[in-house]
Amino acid sequence: MMSSVVKLNDVSYSYDGTAALTDVSIDIRRGEFVAIVGDNGSGKSTMTRLILGLLKPKHGTVELFGKPISQFKDKSRISYVSQKAASFNSGFPVTVEEVVAMGRYGRLGLFKRLKTEDRSAIRRALETVNMWDFRHRKIGDLSGGQQQRVFIARAMVNQPDLLILDEPTVGVDQKHLKDFYDVLHLLREQTSCTFILVTHDLNVVTNLVTKVIHLDRGSLACDCGLKEYSEIDQLAPSIRPYPVKVLIHEETT
Amino acid sequence: MIVDLWNYSFLRYAFIAAIVIGFTAPLIGSFVVVRRMSLIADALSHVTLAGISFSLFLGQYVALFADLNPLYMGTFISVLAALSLNWLRGKYIHFQELSIPIMMSAGMGLSAIFISLSRGFSIDLSSLLFGSISAVSQSDIMLIVGVALVTVIVILIFYKQLLFLSFDEEQAKVSGLPSTMLHILFMFIVSLVIAVSMRIVGTLLVSSLITLPVAAALRFTSSFKQTILWAVIFGEVATIGGLLFAYELDVAPGGVIVLIAVGILATVMTFERMISFRKKEV
Questions:
Q1: What is the distance, to the nearest Å, from the Cα of residue B268 to the centroid of all Cα atoms in its chain?
Q2: Which residues of A touch B177 (CB under 8 A)?
Q3: Ranges assigned E (strand) in A146-199
Q4: Model ipTM?
Q5: CATH, domain range B2-204
Q6: Does the distance separating the beta carbons of A84 and B222 come in below 8 Å?
Q7: Inter-residue contact B243 to B250 (CB < 8 Å)
Q8: Which end of chain B, N or C, is surrounded by fewer C-beta atoms within 10 Å?
């Protein structure tokens, strides 16, 4: 059995006394592609921020790669593309190459400059998302889809073991959504990374997802495989499953 | 002018100060602007004025302060205010910009009280507000050069981290960067630069020297290093040119420096329009 990458044990979190997550336990294993779904306010982003260490649980524990999060120091093993990535200050004077280089800064330390191996990693990441030719362009001058590919490249530049994408397509127009998911498919094929994707649209990733975590008003409504999730109305009629049935049928036919 | 520079030490000090501040203010200003903290310079300069006037006030009653350069107290109060701003921003999570007018009002209120309590300042009020060529002393130069060295060293060491923090604070935190420590260090440097820049440009105009050269550079640069480079070039042109004109016209240097900076910005925007117009024609 694959080793544990993310483990939440009875985790609860509240904002000023209002519960956002209640007694949630999950175990995400190496190589899985996990989709976290749920309505607005269901606790998806809170869960993501707890996993990233941006929030501390009020109750329960978070473990990363088998260690309590407070003892986990190798942050370069985790990468993150936030929903805010698309709403950055587009006037900010940074080139595509500078943005991707930022992904290496966490592990570089003080006084150190980017070395040849860092430059190679930046080039590799940009080539993977087909953005190498745009490396000298200002990030704000690119389209939403291209920007999102650059943020994926920044996330992948350290070849992380865990990639967390928090609704990464917010603000990306329909025309460029396909580009984004094509890159995601490519990364899934080329790496052994574990993926956590917070999404409203499960349909676009049905052939990638191995597990679905459905949150409902801060509680874990479902933690199961995609097939079981498609039959959720029999499992738990109280929650509204995201419409994946049709696609699963299409895949099997 | 060249002969005067050779003959008068106060002119030499003013020019050294102008050259150093023309470099330091846009250097730190590049980070201030992209972090959308431009108004912080205004708040800190007003608080620095409170520190200077407090020192001058104390100088009338306490012998120790009579011989002390008031800029030291101004710098100290500016640093304290910068750290308090951080605390205030934390108290108003949803209205963080409120910390600026709160600090600015406190600074101006204290300045008004200490100035009115003092009987005959050794430095006149207009030089505090708009800068002065003759106000720069040898001890000011030591402080200005010292602050410039500290600023350059901090930027050289933490350039990557500060850039990352400025562009994407959340991602920087996830990457393990000590964001709180970096932010406090940044605010510390900003407060130092603002305090020492006051001698040349004055309280009311110091924020212009921090922001205007950067505003001009932002119009046409695509990378952050280019922005810093051009902001520093514009800053030097404004401060050196401003000081030359101020000396020849016998007016406050702060006003001329800022007007040259505004002129640079207007020129850049005009050329930018012409270029985009020509592109459309093609």
A1: 22
A2: 105-106
A3: 162-166, 194-198
A4: 0.80
A5: 1.10.3470.10
A6: no
A7: no
A8: C
Pairing of strands A162-166, A194-198: parallel
Q: Where are the domains of chain B?
A: 2-204
Picking from B159, B177, B220, B222 by the largest number of A CB atoms within 10 A of its own CB, the best residue to mutate is B222
Contact of A136 with chain B, judged by CB distance below 8 Å, is answered with yes
Site of tokens 């929903």 = A83
Please give the pLDDT value at position A251.
41
Q: In this model, does residue A249 exceed pLDDT 80?
A: no
List chain A domain ranges.
4-252
**DSSP-assigned states of every residue in A3-64:** PEEEEEEEEEEEETTEEEEEEEEEEEETT-EEEEE--TTSSHHHHHHHHHTSS--SEEEEEE
- Give the residue from B257, B264, B260, B255 showing the smallest Cα distance to B219: B264
Nearest chain A Cα to B226, which residue? A93
Query: Tell me, what DSSP letter sits at residue A95?
Result: B
Shortest distance between the Cα of A112 and any Cα of chain B, in A, equals 8
Contacts of B176 in chain A (CB under 8 A): 73, 75-76, 106
pLDDT tens digits for range B96-120: 888 889 999 999 999 889 888 876 6
A83 touches chain B (CB under 8 A): no
* C-alpha–C-alpha distance, residues B232 and B30, integer Å: 9
| Average pLDDT estimate for B49-67 | 86
Sign of CA dihedral A63, A69, A73, A78: positive
Question: Rounded to whole angstroms, how far apart are CA atoms A240 and A66?
Answer: 33
Of A89-93, B94-98, B128-132, B188-192, the poorest mean pLDDT is in: B128-132
Is residue A109 within 8 A of residue A101, CB to CB? The reply is no
* CB atoms A93 and B34 under 8 Å: yes
Say whether residue A48 is in contact with chain B using an 8 A CB cutoff.
no
CA A52 vs CA A8, A81, A156: distances in Å: 12, 11, 16
Q: Cα separations (Å) of B174 from A106, A195, B170?
A: 9, 16, 6
B209 pLDDT higher than 60: yes
Residues A134, A149: Cα–Cα separation, whole Å: 11
Q: Which residues pair with A37 in a beta bridge?
A: A214
Inter-chain touch A106–B168, beta carbons under 8 Å: no
What stretches of chain B adopt beta strand conformation (E)? none
A89 shares contact with chain B (CB less than 8 Å): yes
Task: Note the maximum CA span of chain A.
Answer: 59
Per the structure block, which two tokens stand in for B246?
Answer: 């101020």
